[in-house]
């Protein structure tokens, strides 16, 4: 965030990913895990501009400053200085943020306030909001959390939520969205689902393209971007100790090919391979590019190769190539170029699942001007481009057509 200082450790990532516009101070001596209400000291190794590809080595931590925070690091830290850091959580909201020059006073206020016993015992935490369910009833406080009601609270998106039942069981829930088979949910709809699952308290977590669930190293949902998105944080449930694998054998099957939208019964595939007596007890994909439910039905919506894995007494690995479906939609983009009556156009052709479709023939013409017509073919990325003449005295749209697809008309861009 602007005008702040953030601490990065090797638990954050292997590399810093800090742009040159930020200032970083590398500290050594951070060999212990960070816990709430603890204090650690580190020695400054170097202060420099941000370096996106520099690693965060074991035993080090990185202070990253932006704006006023960057100026503070530059002014107060130099190599061989020692820095003492306190890690505190406060259960109460802070007062209105003071002037940037009073940041030190704001930090001191938080330090003086201290933490309640509840917060001092926190071992792991993840940010979330708004509320979804409180005391067993729908409680969506989007307005209090200052989120946009129209585009966020009441719009359907992929969602991630966490809740607790009256018995104390933890519910971890993902809802796919922005896809043909699942449009997602509004926050009130998400709250209703959590109540139906037994939650007495629940909150919303980071959703949209970040919604993903991995169980036993396998993706068990369908991320809306077509592939999993890099995320800043996650809620993890880990084994308390190393448990020896029960799997005795691994089988790799030959690749299958399907068209986007097709379904495959994986138990039938296992039967055909002579493994009907050892069907998996868990299904998922290795790369999150398609969806497999726990009945073993594979749904291929995103073009590319999905690696399906079924785990049980035998681990079966099955690559499935999903090819784009029939061309369904033409998406043009037109721009004026620095020549009289001349424009550039890029056309994207997709199937009904928004996969780019290659080798689609297109006809482009300026309506009412028979001589201004062109033929295009989409490339491997489903795109075709053109620079064409659009006489100013012909204030008519251009038409882009292809057999089997609805013809698209484009008006001249306003200068």
Explain what this protein looks like in three dimensions:
There is one protein chain. By secondary structure, the protein is mainly beta. Helix content is 11%, strand content 36%. The chain has helices at 68-76, 103-113, 117-120, 149-153, 187-196, 266-272; strands spanning 5-8, 23-28, 38-49, 60-65, 82-87, 131-134, 137-138, 159-165, 170-175, 199-205, 214-215, 218-219, 249-252, 256-259, 263-265, 282-285, 291-292, 297-299, 304-311, 314-323, 329-336, 342-350, 361-366, 373-377, 383-389, 398-402, 405-410. The strands form seven sheets. A five-stranded antiparallel beta sheet has the order 1-4-2-3-5. A five-stranded antiparallel beta sheet has the order 7-6-10-8-9, covered by helices on one side. Strands 13, 14, 16, 19 and 20 form a five-stranded mixed beta sheet that branches. The protein starts with a strand and ends in a 5-residue tail after the last strand. The mean pLDDT is 87.
Count of helical segments? 6
Question: What value does the average pLDDT take?
Answer: 87
Number of strands: 27
Give the termini distance in whole angstroms.
36 Å
Q: Strand fraction band?
A: 35-45%
Question: Which sequence of strands runs across the widest sheet?
Answer: 1-4-2-3-5
Share in helix: 10-25%
Q: Uncertain spans, ≥5 residues at pLDDT below 50? A: none
What radius of gyration results from the CA coordinates?
27 Å
Report the structural category.
mainly beta
- What does the overall shape look like? globular
* Biggest sheet details: 5 strands, antiparallel
